[in-house]
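Escalated from tier 1: oxa(dethia)-CoA holo job.
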Amino acid sequence: MIYTRIAGTGSYLPEKVVTNADLEKTMDTSDEWIRERTGINKRHIAAEGETCSDMGIAAATKAIGMAGIEVTDIDLIIVGTTTPDKVFPSTACIVQRKLGIHGCPAFDVQAACSGFVYALDLANRMIQTAGATTALIIGSEALSRVTNWQDRTTAVLFGDGAGAVILQASKEPGILATHIHSDGQYADLLEVPAGISSGYDAVRAEEAYIHMNGNAVFRRAVATLGSIARETLDGHGFNKSDIDWLVPHQANLRIIKAAAKKLDLSMDNVVVTVDEHANTSAASIPLALDTAVRDGRIQRGQLLLFEAFGAGFTWGSTLVRY
Ligand code: UT7
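Tier 2 regenerated the structure:
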């Protein structure tokens, strides 16, 4: 049996920080509202010209260092992102070029905030079937590029950053289970309407920004994260009490607390970074994972549950023996 283990983690946050107090000066909002409704205190914003691949490379370099591998060992690159550098080629191919790797498959996964768990699912399947031995998986987002800074209902929620993991084939577990789902009937509830084939009208600039029915997304996220946790644990013979760390997508502290409650988990066993990073979509889980690995909370041998939910709707989970 070939398993997939996480050999190294890395993350990157842009230098520029925008606090709630900064936003109070430019829109009709308050630090109190943002903290109470979302748990967010600040977010990092990419510098002018700083791209999804730039941030992904910075995170990947740290993950490669922790794993102790050579760049040339990497034989699969997957980037989860909704804010790629270009329409094409994929950000994964741009990362591949910047790393100086030639020939291995490199592609993006567009599953919005679930992009990282989707990428883990795919990489795990490829490693288990001997299609790859050492995979670089990145979640990277420059959401500030699709944020309408005049719209207080969305502008306060999002941030930029990247997280990465090196996955390696192993005789020891590893990734124990992955589940990914989507339901396109909810596609209109959270979207950036501008597109390519649907005909982007540059005059209607608002189409290039995030549009969200926050209440509807909130309700669905809470319900769905409960069911994905049950599916993941029950289907693989684990109990709630077996989980050492929940590493959830970081959209809203209230959603994270609801997810923890459904698992009977104390918040002491939940990695929370939404206060510092805001919602970084596909980057949020690997950013949170790397934070808790590097500060020593997450230890080898512990059982981790990743849970994600996002536009599409898409959702998914990963159960990992770290
Ligand atoms: O990562 C992908 C998945 N995304 C999510 O999971 C996000 C899910 N949704 C949410 O997290 C929450 O719905 C929000 C944080 C977006 C909004 O929180 P809410 O408790 O659902 O607030 P609301 O939309 O019901 O708005 C309540 C009030 C409204 O005013 P009225 O109509 O009651 O007078 C809003 O206009 O708060 C107002 N409001 C604000 N006030 C100050 C909305 N945004 C702001 C703001 N500052 N930034």
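The CA atoms of residues 220 and 296 lie 33 Å apart.
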